[in-house]
Specification:
Chain lengths: 263, 331
């Protein structure tokens, strides 16, 4: 997938993206380019501004300055839900599921948007039943078929994250933004999610925040390193991991120890 | 984790269970309707009508708090608007039939709901409650000053008239069945709203708003629709109440009323369909009984104590607790 990245323009691009909170600059003049079909990782030490970048991209926070372009068009002034409707769907750091709905309903609530009946309060729920089949397929895809009728609150953590992916996939997004998809997982779950992301990213673009570097090295085509809100380095895993600045700021190499890391 | 056999058997077993639960629920509702139909022969119809009006009011409020997670502290404004508009129209235009008066009152309350909603829906939690309270107070003072409300005296002697122009509502029994039909309509609308495509999105928003937004739903718009439905039904309750008691007064607009509906809903069980009915029944009965007893002046205190006990010891309300007990022991 890394062969076709040279000629195409970026799917998602930021120009001078900046976010200030009362004098504290959380994101500082970030110019990011995500290429079509890539799995692009955003890494950096705690407090580097990765999640803030996510919140800016999906308009959960308004940027102080800068422009966000999706397929060449500015989306800076759009609302969060409109960005999702464009096919840019994000996940959250803490598993974001609808706890008191079944796994099936979780997926179905994403599927039902395309029906255009979501404001129809006079219609029966039964009008959604024909979506069940597709919802089950999606659950199958992430290995949750048997949980279809389980209330999400009763599912194990790793499964919730998988369900979240299924819900995201239900929207058939052109681009997924995953905020630490393997956070808080055991090794076994991590492997499953990595395989899953690899599979579902076919034909899609993924931008992910990730702490687990082994995950990043296995999955990602390109890596952007953030430190203190600014881009420190960018490139493939090899390039980035050899960069002395990155080693010092983030990777905790023998030379740099922990000094540069604690903010 | 589930075993293989369980997982294989699950879908059909679940479907079967859902089917049976649905059948039981339908039978239960049918029984309730029968009870409602014979009730006026067993109890004083005017009292029952009062319960039904407040139950509808509480159900409307519960749609908002229980299913959209929004605590409005201004619902009295809708109850009173429905009541005053219907009262004024029926008293001033003798040709107007009661159902048209009620529809007009309901529509105006709905419009007021749009206004309230647009101004308040972006705020969350306590700020939302405060904004609704503030606007409801504005509405209250408007009713105190406006010439058509009769100010402190209220509107008296609103004629019940003839339903559709030919069914006299002067007998309490006829009036009761009309009110009962309105209640069933309101209750069914809420039930349907909760179990509709819209209800699914509303539930998702209540469960996790940012996630619902990230799926492309405009959360504020959905909350607004829920708010407007709730306001309209509260208005319907107020309009009906005015026809029943032939009276519209400032009591309905006072913030006490907004508090009372919260009490009814929490006591019965917020987020349960039958809780508000139960809560309204208990509160209205208590007021009725206490008013005739030597403890008449202590109504507020006693209700207050009950409220405190309820919030401290059975948080999910009477129906909520019963439901929990049922789930624990019979499933």
């Amino acid at each position: 997938m890394s062969a076709n990245d040279v000629l195409q323009g970026p799917v998602l691009e930021t120009r001078g993206l900046t976010k200030e909170f009362r004098g504290f600059t959380a994101v500082d003049d970030v110019n990011l380019q995500v290429q079509e079909g890539h799995i692009h990782a955003l890494i950096g030490p705690n407090g580097a501004g990765k999640t803030t970048v996510f919140n800016l991209l999906t308009k959960f926070l308004p940027p102080t300055r800068g422009d966000i372009l999706y397929r060449g068009h500015s989306i800076t002034s759009k609302k969060s839900n409109e960005i999702a409707q464009l096919g840019l769907v994000r996940s959250f750091q803490i598993s974001a599921v609808f706890a008191h709905m079944t796994a099936l309903e979780n997926v179905r609530v994403a599927l039902q948007r395309k029906l255009g009946t979501s404001f129809h309060f006079w219609k029966s729920e039964k009008s959604l039943d024909h979506l069940n089949e597709r919802a089950l397929e999606l659950l199958e895809e992430v290995g949750l078929r048997e949980y279809a009728d389980t209330l999400t609150v009763e599912m194990p953590y790793g499964r919730k994250r998988a369900l979240e992916l299924a819900t995201t996939l239900a929207l058939d997004p052109t681009m997924m933004l995953l905020d630490e998809p393997t956070q808080g997982m055991g090794a076994e779950d991590v492997d499953r999610i990595v395989a899953l992301i690899k599979r579902v990213s076919q034909g899609r673009t993924v931008l992910m925040v990730e702490h687990n570097l082994s995950v990043v090295s296995r999955l990602c085509d390109r890596i952007t390193v953030l430190a203190r809100g600014a881009v420190l380095a960018e490139g493939d895993y090899e390039t980035v991991s050899r960069n002395p600045l990155v080693r010092e700021a983030y990777m905790g190499s023998d030379a740099a120890e922990e000094e540069g890391v604690t903010v | 984790m589930m075993t293989e056999t369980q997982s294989m058997a699950a879908p059909s077993a679940v479907l079967e269970r859902q089917k049976r639960a649905k059948f039981r629920r339908n039978m239960f509702y049918l029984a309730l309707i029968v009870v409602g139909l014979v009730a006026p022969f067993l109890a004083y119809p005017v009292f029952l009508m009062k319960v039904l009006c407040f139950a509808l009011f509480a159900c409307a409020f519960n749609l908002l708090l229980g299913y959209a997670g929004l605590l409005s502290f201004g619902h009295a404004a809708f109850l009173a608007t429905g009541g005053y508009v219907t009262g004024y129209l029926l008293a001033s235009y003798p040709g107007l039939t009661p159902e048209l008066g009620i529809i007009a009152g309901t529509l105006l309350a709905t419009l007021l709901g749009v206004l309230f909603g647009v101004l308040s829906i972006r705020r969350q939690g306590i700020y939302f409650a405060m904004v609704t309270l503030a606007i409801a107070q504005l509405v209250y003072f408007m009713f105190v000053q406006a010439p058509f409300t009769g100010g402190e005296d209220g509107l008296h002697g609103v004629p019940r008239g003839e339903l559709f122009g030919f069914i006299s509502l002067s007998s309490n029994l006829a009036m009761y069945y009309f009110v009962f039909a309105i209640f069933i309509f309101g209750f069914a609308l809420i039930q349907r709203t909760v179990h509709s495509p819209f209800g699914q999105v509303l539930k998702a928003i209540r469960e996790n708003e940012p996630r619902a937004v990230s799926l492309g739903y405009n959360a504020d718009a959905y909350k607004l629709v829920a708010f407007v439905i709730s306001a309209g039904l509260a208005g319907l309750a107020g309009s009906t109440k005015t026809v029943v008691f032939q009276l519209a007064s400032l009591t309905d607009a006072h913030w006490h009323m907004s508090g009372e509906v919260i009490l009814m809903t929490l006591l019965g069980g917020v987020g349960t369909l039958l809780g508000p009915l139960m809560g309204a029944g208990i509160v209205v009965s208590l007021q009725h009984i206490l008013a005739q007893s030597p403890l008449g002046n202590w109504v507020s205190v006693i209700l207050g104590i009950i409220f405190v006990i309820c919030v401290l010891s059975f948080r999910s309300g009477i129906v909520g607790e019963l439901d929990k007990m049922y789930r624990k022991n019979f499933k």
